[in-house]
Amino acid sequence: GLWPCSCSRARRMSGERRKAEKLGRRAETLAVWLLRFKGYGIMARRERTPAGEIDIIARRGRTLVAVEVKARRAAAPVGDVIGERQWQRICRALEMYAGRRRLDHLRLRFDIVFLRPGQWPKHVPDAWRPS
């Protein structure tokens, strides 16, 4: 070809991306089951809004929850895996979702579900609050 390109590298990257996508979907499915077990109703998965995407939107009582799912292959420390800008984006997306569905009278909350190999999923309710 005309351009120096490593096509095998491009194929490898897309394979890695497919693996990451598969891991993410599995993690979200496990998170959905965990939340259902805890009494949450699942409103949406991978909800896209103009502000961004929310992994899971759940509801329990008068609380509407945006749940960010983080899966790691290695048992590395999770720490602060979601930055302030990402939380702001998730916040705007949940506000849009609530407004479109006439659920803006509900309390909004932002949770995380962490998944790591060989460990139970960890649900962190109220992981972030808008400033």
Secondary-structure blueprint:
Elements: H1 7-37, E1 41-49, E2 52-60, E3 63-71, H2 84-100, E4 107-115, E5 122-128
Parallel strand pairs: 3-4
Antiparallel strand pairs: 1-2, 2-3, 4-5
Q: What distinguishing features does this structure have?
A:
131 residues, 2 helices, alpha+beta, 5 strands
Question: What do you see in this structure?
Answer:
The chain is of the alpha+beta class and 131 residues long. Helix content is 37%, strand content 33%. The chain is built from 2 helices and 5 strands; from the N terminus they run αβββαββ. The chain has a 5-stranded mixed β-sheet. The termini are far apart. The relative contact order is 0.17. The model has no long low-confidence stretch (mean pLDDT 86).
Please tally the helical runs, counting DSSP H or I stretches of 4 or more residues.
2
Strand order, sheet with most strands: 1-2-3-4-5
What's the mean pLDDT score?
86
Structural class: alpha+beta
Residues in β-strands, percent: 25-35%
Number of beta strands: 5
What is the CA–CA distance across the termini? 52 Å
Radius of gyration, CA atoms, in whole angstroms = 17 Å
**Unreliable parts:** none
Shape designation: globular
Q: What helical percentage do the residues reach?
A: 25-40%
Q: How do the SSEs run, as a string of H and E?
A: HEEEHEE
Describe the biggest sheet? 5 strands, mixed
